[in-house]
Amino acid sequence: MSVVTSCLPDRPSPTPCEPLLALRSPVNRVSYDYWKQKRAGRAMPARSDIDPAEITKILPHVFLLDVRQEPLDFRYRLIGTKMEEHMLDSYTGLWMSQIPHQRAPSRIWANCRKVALEGRPLSGDTPYIGKGKEFLSTEDLIMPLSDGGETVQMLFVTVGFV
């Protein structure tokens, strides 16, 4: 089972590294391994490193979120088909700040904020708010992308339903 930490071993951190969630979702384990491979020793991969043809099995579970730094916000660029099925509405093109249950100080906002500011992946459980009643929460894996390797410009997110 993959374990995601709040720190990357080859990147200095202002706070101690702490183990986060042992990834339970096979989708998230695959996506984390893919992100690490694409990182190729850098702090984080670029958006151009992510090739949809290489991740067809997990693509239905993927979100791509644009990151606006000032003021901080996250826009839904791409929503996988499986994710779209479970969402209350179509959020493509919307900023999180426009969605009442996702704007600050929601847990998903806080997790995205942490990744955008620290440039490190984060995994966490988020209460499920969606069409179905068969899930209580989601296991979210949020991974940073940056063309320059420093400022996070996009979040590569996969979601497993638990």
Task: Please tag this protein with its features.
two-stranded antiparallel sheet, 162 residues, five-stranded antiparallel beta sheet, Beta-Lactamase, alpha+beta
Write the layout of secondary structure elements.
Blueprint: E1 3-5, E2 19-22, H1 26-39, E3 62-68, E4 73-79, H2 81-86, H3 107-118, E5 122-127, E6 137-145, E7 154-161
Antiparallel strand pairs: 1-2, 3-4, 3-7, 5-6, 6-7
Folded structure, characterized:
The chain is α+β, with helices and mostly antiparallel strands and 162 residues long. The protein has a single domain, classed as Beta-Lactamase. It contains 3 helices and 7 strands; from the N terminus they run ββαββααβββ. The chain has helices at 26-39, 81-86, 107-118; strands at residues 3-5, 19-22, 62-68, 73-79, 122-127, 137-145, 154-161. A 5-stranded antiparallel sheet has the order 4-3-7-6-5. Strands 1-2 form a two-stranded antiparallel sheet. β6 and β7 (154-161) form a beta hairpin. The two termini are 16 Å apart. The model has no long low-confidence stretch (mean pLDDT 83).
